[in-house]
DNA sequence: TGACTCTAGTTCAACGATGTACCTTGTGCC
DNA sequence: GGCACAAGGTACATCGTTGAACTAGAGTCA
C-alpha cells in the first residue's frame, strides 16, 4: 500500500498472490469465485493477500477464458436531446444493477457510422449490442446474414421481417402513442386539434420519421372521431424554442384551436410558455399534451400531461432479452412491444 | 456469408483463417496489423479470407497481449442534466476520433459509488478513467496510494495536493468564471446585481458546491467593484422551472435589480421567461448571463449571454493527458486549467 | 566462392484466468 | 492392517493475439 510515486506497478495478478502464499493459482481463483475445496484458513489468508495487494480480476483474461466480459454497447444517435440522454441514463443504471457496464457509441455521424455498428465496429468488443437505428434501412438489414454479436434493436425504424438472425427487437409504437394522445384530448371534448411537430427541413432528419409516425397516429385518431381537417403546425426544430415560435404562429392563424398534440415534451414546454404569453389559459381554453415524459414534465406550469415511454422498463426489457441471448439463447428474433402510458397532469382537462 | 439461422457460430479467429489458407497465424496477424514481411499475393489471399469469414480481432485477446484495450471509463454523476449529457457526448465524440470507446459509469448513487470508481470497480476493465467526483473528499483521495489505472480528474472538487500518483487534473475554474460573468455586467454599467442559484436544500447536493464556488466568484467581483450588499436569490433546483419562480420572487422583493448572474443556463432560461412575463425588458432593463453555453443558449429570446466551458476542448485535453499516461508517461500529477470563454449574445448589453 | 543481407515466412512463449483431471493426505470402518 | 473416500489441494491445457527469435531461400557484392 501507499506505494508512492515511482514505476507504475503492474496490477497484481493471481500469480502474485499465489506466489506470496505458496499456494497454487487455482486455489486463488477458487477463493475469488467462491468455489469449494478451499480450507477456511487458506481462504482467509488468500483474502487478506487480495486486500493487501489490491488485486482485481482482469476482465479481458476472464473474457478470453469464459467468453464474456459483462460489457454491452449502446449505440444511439446522440446524447444531445433530452429523450436520448435520459434513455442512456436508464440503460446505464439498469446495466449497473445487473453487474454489466455500458459502452456508449454515438452514431450521430450518420449512415456509415450505423453500418459500422452492425459490422461489429471492426473489433469484437463486449458481449452484445443495443442499437437504435435511425437511418439504416431494410436494404442493409436484409442483407445482413447474422449479427456478429447478440443484438437488440430499439426504436421504431425496423421492419420485423428484416431482423437478422441472432437479434431481437423492442418496438416503440409511436403511432399508437400519438393516437392515444389525440384520443385523450378528444375524449375531453376538444374538437379543434393541432399537431405541433412537423419538420420542414430534413436537416433534423433524426426526429423526422418519429415525427411522421406520431403525425400518422394523430391523423388516425381524428379520422376515427370524424374530425376533419386537423391542423398540422411545422416547427423549425424539436426544441422548446421551436415550440414557442410555432405556437405563436399557430394561434394567430387558427384561433379556434383548443388542443395541441406535441411531438415531444420540449415542444410542449414551448407551447405552454407561448400560450401563457398570449394570455390563453391552459387547460381552460387549450389543452396541451406532450411525448417522452422528461424529468421536468411534472414541473412545468401547468404540469404537463404527456405520454410516458417508461425508459426504465424499456431498458430493463431490452437488457433481459440481450442477456438471454448472451447466455446462449439462439432462437428466432423476438419482437416485444414496449409499453407506454399516458400520464395525466394539469395541462389537459375535461372541457365544458 | 448468409449463414442463416442455426447454431450461433463462434466468431472467426486468426487460427481459422490461417488453417483455411495453410499459412501461419502470425502471417495473418501481420496482414491485419499492416506489418511487413508478407508477400503481396499472400496478403491478398488473407484479406479475402478475412472478408469471407467476417473476421474481427478480439479486443480482449489484444488487451491480454499488449496491455491496452482502447476503452476509457467516464465516471460522472448522471446524464440527467444538460451540462453532463452534453459533456458525455463531447467525450464520446472525441474518444471515437481517437479510435477509443467510452464506457459510461454513473455515480449518481453517491459516495460509495464514487469510492468504488477509485478502487477500480472491483474489476480491471479498460485502460484509464475520466472521473468527475462530486462527493469524494480529501480524506479519501489523500489515503489513496496510487490509482489502479491512469486517471484524469475533472471538475472543481479536487485539491491539487490530494491528487494520487498516476493521475492528472483538468480543473474548471468556476469561481473565476462567475467572477468574469459578474464583471461583465458591471462593465456594462449594471450596479444592482443578483446571483440566482443558491440552493436551500442539500437535496440537490450535486450542484451545491458548484453553486458555492460560483457564488464566491460573484461576491469577489462585486467586492472589487465596491458594490455592497449584492442580492442572492435561492432556487429550489437548478432547473428552468426553478428559475422562473425564483425570479418572480426576486423582482418583487428587489425591483432595483438590473443584472442577474445565473448558476447555469437552465436557470437563465427560466429567468428570461419570467422577466418577459413580468414585462421587464432584457437587456433594456435587466441583463441576464448564464453558465454552460448549452446547445439551446443561442436560441432563447433574447439569445443568452453565457460562460462557455468549451466542453469539446475540455474532452480533448482530458483525453490527450489520459492517453499519454496510458502510453507510459508516469510523471507527477499534472494540473491543467480548462479554458472558458464568455460568449456575448443578446441578453446583456451596455447600459446608458 | 564465400560472406553478407534481405524477404517471407515459421515457431514458440507469454499475457491472466479457469475448467478438467489428477494427486495427496488423514480419517473411518470392517 | 487394508481399503474407500472425502477434503484440500496441484498441474496442465486453453482461450486469441502478438513480440522475439529463428530459418530457408534468393539476391548482392567484393
Keywords:
352 residues; DNA-binding; homodimer; 434 Repressor (Amino-terminal Domain); alpha/beta; disordered N terminus; Rossmann fold; six-stranded parallel beta sheet
Describe the protein in words.
2 copies of one chain form a homodimer. Chain A is α/β, with parallel strands linked by helices. The first copy, chain A, has 3 domains: 14-57, lambda repressor-like DNA-binding domains (434 Repressor (Amino-terminal Domain)); 71-173 and 311-340, Rossmann fold (3-Layer(aba) Sandwich); 175-309, 3-Layer(aba) Sandwich (Rossmann fold). In chain A, 41% of the residues lie in helices and 19% in strands. The first copy, chain A, is built from 12 helices and 12 strands. Chain A has helices at residues 14-21, 25-32, 40-53, 59-66, 82-97, 111-118, 138-142, 174-187, 205-224, 240-253, 265-277, 311-326; strands at 71-76, 101-106, 128-131, 146-155, 165-172, 193-199, 231-235, 259-262, 287-291, 305-308, 335-338, 341-343. In chain A, strands 2-1-3-4-5-11 form a 6-stranded parallel sheet, with helices on both faces. A 6-stranded mixed sheet of chain A has the order 7-6-8-9-10-12, sandwiched between helices. In chain A, α1 packs across α3, α5 (82-97) crosses α12 and α8 (174-187) packs across α9. The first copy, chain A, is elongated. Chain A starts with 13 loop residues before the first helix and ends in a 9-residue tail after the last strand. Mean pLDDT of chain A is 88; it is low at 1-6. Chains A and B meet through α4, β1, α5, β2 and α10 of A and α4, β1, α5, β2 and α10 of B. β2 of chain A pairs antiparallel with β2 (101-106) of chain B, so a sheet runs across the interface.
